[in-house]
Structure prediction request, 172 residues.
Amino acid sequence: MNEQVQAVQRMQDYLEEHVEDEVTLEDLAAVSLFSPWHSYRLFRRLTGMTPADYQRRMRLTHSAARLREEGRRVADVAFESGFGSVDGYQRAFRREFGCNPGSYAADPVPIGLFVPYGVKFDELRRAHVPAPANAARNVLVQTIEKPARRVVLKRGVSAHDYFSYGEEVGCQ
Prediction:
């Protein structure tokens, strides 16, 4: 495993350990042993997101688990998760999961949580297993209740095929 992958993995581990703390680029640079700007670029290149986005998504996922399992108040969870205001937390939660945290706490629906995946595992997978030609994609399956439907049957009197029936009943 190369030095850059190890540096980003150390940053990911640090962010996971300090998910509710305020983490700066200088903190990540100290962990990665690169400059702040280079650490930022490496993190973004190997994970596909900025360190701030990564931490925000982890915070939101942890807060969703608290809302679901502990039945906490939205305001308490917002401040404990490191957000500066309840309004900002609610906007971020809605943007990430597509629902309001209050309604999610009252009736938890299935949401796509962020699962941090270490770059070292991705590097190991690429080194040993070739990617399949038709790799599977993540699919969300959701059951939707629809109202019952009724069949309307309109018989033709003198129609003998589809087009003459259409003319008889006034369809185009």
The domain at 3-106 is CATH 1.10.10.60 (Arc Repressor Mutant, subunit A). The chain has a mean pLDDT of 82. DSSP finds nine helices and no strands in the chain. Residues 1 and 123 are 7 Å apart (CA to CA).
